[in-house]
Design brief:
Elements (H helix, E strand, L loop, with lengths): L2 H24 L1 H28 L5 H36 L13 E2 L3 E2 L2 E2 L4 E9 L2 E16 L2 E12 L2 E13 L4 E12 L2 E4 L4 E2 L6 E6 L8 E3 L1 E2 L7 E13 L2 E12 L7 E7 L3 E6 L6 E9 L1
């Protein structure tokens, strides 16, 4: 083979490799969806056999049979959920495109504090929300602390968010936010604990940007616009919340007061495709209302305190 032909072969091979890499990046969202589906489908039978192992230690025959039936039902429901999550992730891919989700985070692009018009976080401020649910009265206390946390090189504001139901603490979470120079508020992670009877029973939803592939997302844009569609957080299988701006002109009345020109978002997650929340943000205040459009349940701002 002469040198010219050899050179052309090498160039052609490099070109094919480059096109393959480009195609792979363009299909990253689809590949993520497919791999998550395989993981979910593999987990279902694993959980089933673990449940059957527990049933083997039930001595009463009728109870053992019921236990085994419950295990089978749970497996079927898990597989249905796997397919629903796939469909939801595919819908996100259609909106966001196929490229990998890898936002560029440059620490020097971020400022101290968070003063976004629709999501201000003044240290020492506590926002208190209440709502009636079928399980009782819930109170959500969202306290902006004086503490900060360095995550992925970015100095983040730390917020403690606690939830009580009829006075009993059921959730205790630390959230971390930072604002870039354009005014966008980024969500950098959370340390979430679920409690029952004063004991920690889970840490579902916990993630930290930069750890185990976790990526930060947008909590509030500097200049939200109707139709905006964005990831609020991303750790595959753990935190996949999506936000969409649906209105900029909503009027909202809650116990704390009445507000005009509120931003309304629709928040969803492929992890729970049936779950939808509408949130309303008042200028200069922040979140004033969370609404479940299916049940009509409302979590309303009732009070703001400052240290």
């Amino acid at each position: 083979m002469n040198k010219t032909l050899c050179f052309l072969v090498i160039i052609g091979a490099l070109s094919l490799e480059s096109r393959a890499a480009t195609l792979q990046r363009a299909n990253a969202c689809r590949q993520t969806t497919d791999n998550a589906l395989r993981s979910c489908r593999n987990a279902a039978p694993s959980d089933f056999w673990l449940a059957r192992g527990k049933c083997a230690n039930v001595t009463q025959r009728e109870e053992q049979t019921a236990c085994e039936q419950d295990a089978s039902t749970a497996q079927r429901e898990a597989l249905v959920t796997c397919n629903a999550q796939r469909d939801a992730r595919q819908a996100v891919c259609r909106r966001l495109g196929g490229a990998p989700y890898e936002p560029e985070i440059e620490p020097t692009d971020f400022v101290a504090g968070v003063d976004n018009l629709y999501f201000p976080l003044p240290p020492g401020t506590t926002f208190i929300y209440e709502g009636r649910t079928p399980d009782g009265l819930e109170r959500d206390t969202f306290s902006v602390t004086e503490d900060t946390r360095l995550i992925a090189g970015v100095r983040c504001v730390e917020v403690r968010d606690t939830v009580t139901r009829d006075g009993e603490l059921i959730e205790d979470t630390l959230d971390w936010f930072a604002q870039d120079r354009e005014g966008n508020v980024w969500y950098f992670g959370e340390n979430a604990k679920q409690l029952a009877g004063g004991l920690i029973v889970g840490v579902e939803g916990s993630w930290t940007a930069g750890v185990d592939g976790a990526r930060p997302g947008i909590a509030m844009r500097a200049r939200p616009g109707v139709g905006d569609f964005y990831r609020q957080e991303f750790t595959l299988g753990t935190a996949e919340d999506i936000g969409s701006v649906v209105s900029l002109t909503e009027a909202v009345t809650v116990p704390y007061g009445s507000f005009d020109a509120c931003v309304e978002t629709e928040d969803t997650t492929p992890l729970s495709p049936e779950s939808v929340e509408h949130k309303f943000y008042a200028p200069g205040i922040g979140a004033v209302l969370e609404l479940d459009p299916e049940t009509g349940e409302r979590l309303e701002l009732v009070r703001i305190t400052t240290d």
